[in-house]
Amino acid sequence: MRALLLMVMLATGLAPTWALAQSAPDVRIVVDVSGSMKQNDPQNLRANALGFAATLLPPSARGSIWTFGTTVSNPLPSGTVADAWRGRVASLSPQLTDYQQFTDIERALRQAADAAPDSANRHLILLTDGMVDLPASGSDKAQRDSASRQRIISELAPELAGRGVVVHAIALSNNVDLPLLEQVAQTTGGLAAVADTPEELLRAFLDVLDRILPGDQIPIDGQQRFSVDDDIDEFNALLFHDPGVDSPVLVGPDGQRYSRGDHPGVVEWQSSDRYDLVTVPDPAAGEWRIEGDIGDDSRIGIHADTVLRSTPLPATLYRGFSTPLDVWLASDGETLGADRRPDGLTVRAELKDLDGAVLAATPLDPSDDHFRGELPGVDQLGNARLTITARSDRMIRQQVQTVNVVAALSAVLSEDGSQIVVRANHPDLDVNNTQLSASLTGRSLNVRQTGEREWTIAVPQTDPGQSLPVTIAADARVGGRTLHFELPVVRLNPEASVGLSGADLQRGITSDSRQQDNSLGSDDGDDFTDGLTASQMADIAVDKAQQGWRFAKPYVETYGQRPVTWIIIAVIVLAWILLRWRNAVRRRRLGRREEPSI
After folding, report:
1. Is the distance from CB of 310 to CB of 399 less than 8 angstroms?
2. Is the CB of residue 57 less than 8 Å from the CB of residue 124?
C-alpha cells in the first residue's frame, strides 16, 4: 500500500500544473505476453511497468492497457486516469503470465493505434523483448517474420508518424531486436530504451513522461545542493537510494531538517526501499541541501509562475549533425521580453550520457525575446539526456529530456550474406543527394538504389572460411555543405575463424563516421596472413589500424601534444609491420620447401 501511495504521489507531484492544461495525452501501454518473455523477462518487470504507468500519468490523461502474443487483447479499455482506473490496473498482473506462443508486434501496434478514441495526443508505450515471431514453420516462417518486420519499419511506422501517433519502445531484455525498436521510435518521434531492472524501468517511464508532459526542474549540484527562489510555489524531490539505506534528509536554508520520521505536517513524505518522494509546498527561498547518498536519477520538479519553454525538443539526434535549439522564459502564458527577464540571465544546453559525462555543450544567445543556438553533433550513439538550463543570480530553471542518438546511415548484412542494405536514417539524406561507394579487398562493388532512402550492395561469393571486410563510404550535399561519412566495416562471413573479429556488424544502428568499438579482436600468432592476398592483407591492416585508433583516441588526445609521443608511435608501428611481413615471407618459403616434387 505504501508503494502504491508513493506512486500516486509521484504521478500527481511531478506532473507540472501548466502541462495539465495542454491537450490531454492518450497513453496506450502495449505489453508483450509471448512465450519468449519467460526467458527475457523472468522477473516479470512488466507487472512493475503497469503499476508505474498507472501512477505516473496525471489525472488529466487517458490510458488503456493492451496485451499481445499470437493475438491482441485490450483488458483495460481507454478511460480517464483516476483512482478506479488505477485500481483496475492492479488486477491485471495475472494476465501477464498467461503466455502465448508467438509475438505479433505488427498487429499489436496497429490495433492499439487504431482503437477509439481518435485522440490528437496519442502515445503508445511498447514493452517487449522486441522479436517478431509469427505462426509458421520452415523457410516460410523466416520469410513471414522478415516481411512483418520490414512492414513495421517501412510502412506502419511512417503511417503512425503521419497520424501523429508516437511510439516509445522499452525493451525488457538485452536479448532484443533493438534496431527494430529504435527505428520505430525514431520514425514516430518516440524514445527507445532497454530496462533490465525495476530502477531502469522507472527511469524509462520518467523519461517518457518528460516527453509527454515536459516540466521544469531545478538542478542538484555535486554537493547535493539546490536553489529555491521566491517564485517557486512547490517542489517535489524524488530521491533515489540503494536498498537498505536510510532515507535522505532535506535541510532548508534556515537549517531546519526534514526527515522521513520528522517533518512539518504540510510536507508530504512517501518512501520505498529505493527512493523517497518529498513534496514541500511554499518552500523557503534559498539554498537547500540533501544529506545521504542519492542516485544520479534524483530530481527536483517544481511548480512556479516563471517557467522555461522551448520549441519541441527532438527525441532523435543524429551522429555528427548539430541540433538547433530555441527557448524562452514565460509567465502566465506570455513570453518574457528582455525588459522582464531576470538580470544577467544566461541559457546553456548540454548533452550528457546516462552516466553524466558531457558529450556536447553550447550557450544559447539572446535573439529577440528568445535564446537560440545549435548543439554540436556527437559521436557516441545510444540514449543521452539533453539539458537546457536558464540561470541568473535570482533563479534557475531547467528542462531535461532523454533523446536517442542514432547514425545518419546504417548498413546491415543480409542473413544469407549475399547483400548489404544501407538505409538513410537522417531525414535530409536520400538517393538524390547522397552517393555511396563500397569495396571488398580493394575491388569496387556495385551499389544499387532500391528505394528513396535505401541502397543495396551485392557482394560476391567468398571463401566461407575467410572473414573479409567491406568498406562503405558516402558523400552527401546537405544545406549547401558536402558531408563525408564512413560507415563501420561490414564483415562477410563474420563467424569465420580467419580474419579480424572486430567491427561487429550485427548492430542495426551504425555510424556516419567511425564507430567507437572497444571490443577489439585478437589474432593468434601468424594466422593474420593465412589465406589472404597482399591486397587483402593491406585492407585488413588498415581496418586493424582504424580499430586501434578507436581504442587509442582518448590517450592520443591527452599525450598528442608531445612530439616524443608521435616518434614512439611511428617506431612501434613500423617495427610491427616489418615483423609481420618478415614472418609471412618466411612461412611462405617454408611452405614451398615442404612441397614434394614429382
Report:
1. yes
2. no
Which residues have a Cβ under 8 Å from the Cβ of 84 and sit 6 or more positions away?
A: none
Residue 290: C-alpha distances to residues 221, 259, 267, 460 (Å): 10, 10, 16, 63
Residue 75's Cβ-side half-sphere holds a number of Cα atoms within 13 Å equal to: 20
pTM of the model: 0.73
- Hunting for cell 539539458 — which residue is that? 387
| Cβ(577)–Cβ(544) below 8 Å | no
How does pLDDT run across 119-163, given as a tens digit for each residue?
Answer: 888 999 999 887 898 988 777 888 899 899 999 998 999 999 999
Provide the H-helix boundaries in 61-212. 83-90, 105-114, 138-151, 157-162, 178-188, 198-212
Whole-number Å distance between alpha carbons of 583 and 579: 6
Q: Which of 107, 177, 100, 102 shows the shortest CA–CA distance to 136?
A: 102
Which three-class secondary structure state does DSSP give residue 11?
Answer: helix
Rounded to the nearest 5°, which phi and psi values hold at 78? -60, 135
Non-local (6+) Cβ contacts of 444 within 8 A are 437, 438
Cα separation, 512 vs 488, whole angstroms: 8
pLDDT tens-digit profile of 445-494?
999 999 999 999 998 888 888 888 999 999 999 888 888 888 888 888 87
Interacting residues of 396 by C-beta distance below 8 A, sequence separation 6+: 218, 219, 227, 229, 389, 390
